[in-house]
Amino acid sequence: MTYDPEARRDTPLARKLKQRIHRDGALTVAEYMQACLQDPEYGYYVKQQAIGHAGDFITAPEISQIFGELIGLWSAVVWQQMGSPSLVNLVELGPGRGTLMRDALRAASKMPPFLNALKVHLVESNSVLQRRQREVLAGVFPPVISNASMAVVPPGAVIVIANEFLDTVPAAQRSVGGERRVTLDAKDRLVFDPPEGTFHERQDFAPLIDHLASRAMDAPLAALFIDYGHLQSSAGETMQATRSHAPEHPLCSPGEADLTVHVDFAAFGAALVGCGLAVDGPATQGEFLGRLGIVERASRLMSANPDKAGEIELAVARLIAPQGMGSRFKAIGVRSSRLSVLPGLGSDP
User: Is this prediction's pTM over 0.70?
Assistant: First the structure.
């Protein structure tokens, strides 16, 4: 990524963080990231539009309807693996504009027994996106329930979907010299201390994993996480900021830029297993979608819409291309140990 490493914008959150540092001392990198994303007044995921051409980035569901449709069919098969319970909670974490869930429910309508068993929950903290979700999902069946936390989802069988959610979990950065922090320089600018070095990033997945493990003790649970990241743990800092579809320094625009890190899937998977959950994958997004039949679905869609065939083909290629999202993004499945391997995540296609 190329950007001006000296650029700083005096955003409302930047001013608030400077006051906090003057009062309480330097912030850890994890504390800084948490404030940038979730500050109740100025946090990025509290009020920003974020997703779409008018926002800061585009996600897979916005690229092609096929992505959400395949997730909907995946969920239906998982429900069958659970024994087709009469009630199942379908939960999406960080549902964006509601596009994935809209497409998933449209595909799920081909299996009426599954659709009739669903209670759909969107877990979202962003008020702007909540309004957009209500617009996109107005009139769908079953009706969608909005929650600020997964903790309020009723007990029972649950299927969790999370696309580009894990990358927003705050990460600490540590080296042999100690924990990296965010402080102020002589010009009262936000800076990293130390500015450079060999750091090990670690995200705090414990609250999420503990909740999943607790639910899995009482009822069938399956979860699908899709995000960009690496398969093996290694040293290096990966925090990145994006604003208006362009990269910038992570300290440039606190509260007004998307701030994420690359997910360490090895660490995430190990933590899940350590809490008694079974893990399938990770597989690359290209492998996962390929096993679910994305090429075949695209072919049928192109035949039904010949005037849009080129557009459909390009969108699907973007999702599965080895040089792009197809390899950079990974899919990992989480389940109760008594469930069988989740679709698309076994060793065989």
Answer: yes
